[in-house]
Amino acid sequence: MLAALRRTESRGAIETAHRAHQTCSQVFRYAIATGRAERDPSTDLRGALPPTRKKHHASLTNIKAVSELMRAIDGYQGHFATKCALRLAALLFVRPGELRKAEWSEFNFDTAEWRIPAEKMKMRVTHIVPLSAQAISILRELQPLTGQRKFVFPCVRTPTRPMSENTVNAGLRRLGYTKEEMTGHGFRSMASTLLNEQGWNRDAIERQLAHAERNNIRAAYNYAEYLPERKKMMQHWADYLDALSRGTNVVMLKTA
């Protein structure tokens, strides 16, 4: 097993090697459960592979730069659905994959919530995204265009599938931002940095980002944790971005 993993590692595919290691472990655990093996030998190889490198997603966190970004998005001249995706990426700061696979059935305008099913989430836990008034307004603008489809952002060529994973990044490139300056994933870092600076509860921010919960069982039952505060925070964030888009020199701290 180590020899096979080393071959994968030797070509620079460190993450693939780690995934292969995990898959081997799953196979052996199944073998133990079905009486085909007595132990999982893959555990003996812990630490044998170099750690994976954390991906860095380029992001803007300087207030002036964020203000310019929001004005650029407001002036986007490309496809209308892409403009909506860019605006929602900034407002909701979900993972790019979660945004592009959003389905109309997951949204409830009466409760102002988007509930992303567990199977779509990285951590396999239901995620609630409170919708600001601005987010609902964008979705209502988009509804006449894609509301009859399954996906909020359907693929232009194949409407039964969601938009391409490159759509938001392509929109940013069209606005003149390089991949070293801003990415679709960078909206998450942007929101996290600025909301923390403004004094919002770090745990509420982390929950809204749907970051890893150490206790998966606890996470499954606490997806609504800090929800009242998160609702206030998401509306605050939308108002803050609106102010920046208008070019207002504003400092908005957490309000009670």
Structural description of this entry:
- The chain is mainly α.
- The chain is 49% helix and 4% strand.
- It is built from 11 helices and 3 strands, in the order αααααβββαααααα.
- The chain has a 3-stranded antiparallel β-sheet.
- It is globular.
- It starts with a helix and ends in an 11-residue tail after the last helix.
- The model has no long low-confidence stretch (mean pLDDT 90).
Helices and strands, with pairings:
Layout: H1 2-10, H2 14-33, H3 63-74, H4 80-92, H5 96-100, E1 107-108, E2 113-116, E3 127-130, H6 133-146, H7 167-174, H8 186-197, H9 202-208, H10 216-221, H11 227-245
Antiparallel strand pairs: 1-2, 2-3
Helix pairs in contact: 1-2, 3-11, 4-6, 4-7
Keywords:
3-stranded antiparallel beta sheet; 256 residues; single chain; hpI Integrase, Chain A; mainly alpha
| CATH topology name of the largest domain | hpI Integrase, Chain A
CATH class of the largest domain: Mainly Alpha
Bin the helical content.
40-55%
CA gyration radius, whole angstroms:
21 Å
The class by helix and strand makeup works out as mainly alpha
Q: Low-confidence segments, ≥5 residues, pLDDT <50?
A: none
